[in-house]
Amino acid sequence: LAGGPGCDVCYGLVEDTQEKEGILPERAEEAKLKAKYPSLGQKPGGSDFLMKRLQKGQKYFDSGDYNMAKAKMKNKQLPSAGPDKNLVTGDHIPTPQDLPQRKSSLVTSKLAG
Amino acid sequence: FFEKKLISFLFCLNYTADIISTVEFNHSGELLATGDKGGRVVIFQQEQENKIQSHSRGEYNVYSTFQSHEPEFDYLKSLEIEEKINKIRWLPQKNAAQFLLSTNDKTIKLWKISERDKRPEGYNLKEEDGRYRDPTTVTTLRVPVFRPMDLMVEASPRRIFANAHTYHINSISINSDYETYLSADDLRINLWHLEITDRSFNIVDIKPANMEELTEVITAAEFHPNSCNTFVYSSSKGTIRLCDMRASALCDRHSKLFEEPEDPSNRSFFSEIISSISDVKFSHSGRYMMTRDYLSVKIWDLNMENRPVETYQVHEYLRSKLCSLYENDCIFDKFECCWNGSDSVVMTGSYNNFFRMFDRNTKRDITLEASRENNKPRTVLKPRKVCASGKRKKDEISVDSLDFNKKILHTAWHPKENIIAVATTNNLYIFQDKVN
């Protein structure tokens, strides 16, 4: 297989990972991940990844925003969540289907008194 | 250390709680605070040593429980603000009361914990139960006096430091001047004065003008234990920056940058993720600092920036499991680490309710387990071993049977004695070494 220095074309095609594991277990794991998710980007530390990290928090459905956006859109399609579900309100209107259920925290502490 | 002491850590007692999110001893070690996902703080107090029964140290009993933070709602962004306590830090004791700072994602609070063991009795116009007396029935005057009562421990919020963080607070650290403290979120660090709640100074800001250029976030920050002008912050890219507040008001330019060079041929998709530092802690001496990344603990000499002086592998066998750990999000778990009082041993948690200790002098290490099934109170803890591959010996656990839902993220070491607090998801364990 032709490839320049640092080319890791080989890793994606290797059937037998046992050999590679001896060289670098991380690379073998990377190959496994890429085989499962071919569309995974090359750089995991990119800004999309970090943006998701910054947006941690339970999002709620705002019926006011939602209905206003629907009224504005009229015949056009309401922008749906798509792959990036974590945009701040204002850029994107969450729809009721987008939102995960909130888990309620326990009411009382179980620490022995 | 391990030979005579560590191996005989006794299982002392354990408490069941909501998901524990932080554990911290106070400066004397007499008090131990825990914070949980429900916004509650529970403080334990060590019993005074019984002089007659000198073979055991005092046990820890519940001293005070209070609701520190409530869930809130950011209406502008339709976002819920979790009440989970991210960090607790104690102030050194100045008078009879105890003070601590507790923080959730957005708000820091200063709590005063005080004891009341006397109450006034003998009012002229009130009955003992509080009802007012008919003034016409009062024929003599008496002087109210203080009489002893059952001990009551009260917690009251003295300061609320709010609205200073756009992103989620991950660290608070009290300055050695005992007047100021810092709070750090993903992109900024603020400096507060403990008396002033309506203002804080921004001392670090790594937010790029264009968010598309964002490459790293702040993961932890701490003030130096002795130099009031020095603090460090760690990043998701595995670097630590040391800053000097005397250099400029905004410490965007570091004084020192600690980073271990990486061999580019070893780089993989996971390299950056597992290099992200989840905790940074100065040694008590102030000469060293310790960082925790996904697979290891590193000790850095503040005088040497280009590599750590010691590296300890916590669970290297996970390197061949990174694919599944990425899929189940475990690769993002934030483990903490801590020093013992003399800076000779460091401790950190792992999976399967295991925790690890490393003796810096003898270079020996040990794996122990915090679980009720395997330990009865006052029994010696048995060392554990994980078998990475090949034939599993008796009593070893294979990597594939590790429970990744049982993680020990938070541990704390008593500042003076060999007493440790270890938090599993729902339980708090306190272990101590065998005395004689």
TrEMBL record, chain A:
Gene Ontology MF term list: protein phosphatase inhibitor activity
GO BP annotations listed: cell division
Gene that specifies this protein: ENSA
Family that this chain belongs to: Belongs to the endosulfine family.
Pfam families the record matches: Endosulfine
Gene Ontology CC, one term: cytoplasm
Polar residues biased stretches: 102-113
The entry's keywords: Cell cycle, Cell division, Cytoplasm, Mitosis, Phosphoprotein, Protein phosphatase inhibitor
Sequence segments annotated as region (Disordered): 75-113
Keyword ATP-binding: no
Protein name: Alpha-endosulfine
Record's function text: Protein phosphatase inhibitor that specifically inhibits protein phosphatase 2A (PP2A) during mitosis.
Localization annotation: Cytoplasm
Organism domain of life: Eukaryota
Major localization listed first in the record, in broad terms: cytoplasm
Annotated source species: Papio anubis (Olive baboon)
InterPro entries: Endosulphine (IPR006760)
From TrEMBL, chain B:
Parts of the chain that traverse the membrane: none
GO cellular component entries: protein phosphatase type 2A complex
SUPFAM superfamilies per the UniProt record, alphabetical: WD40 repeat-like
Coiled-coil segments on the chain, per record: none
Molecular function per GO: protein phosphatase regulator activity
InterPro entries associated with the record: PP2A_PR55 (IPR000009), PP2A_PR55_CS (IPR018067), WD40/YVTN_repeat-like_dom_sf (IPR015943), WD40_repeat_dom_sf (IPR036322), WD40_rpt (IPR001680)
Keywords: Repeat, WD repeat
PANTHER family linked to this entry: PROTEIN PHOSPHATASE PP2A REGULATORY SUBUNIT B
Family: Belongs to the phosphatase 2A regulatory subunit B family.
Protein name: Serine/threonine-protein phosphatase 2A 55 kDa regulatory subunit B
Record organism: Papio anubis
Taxonomic lineage: Eukaryota, Metazoa, Chordata, Craniata, Vertebrata
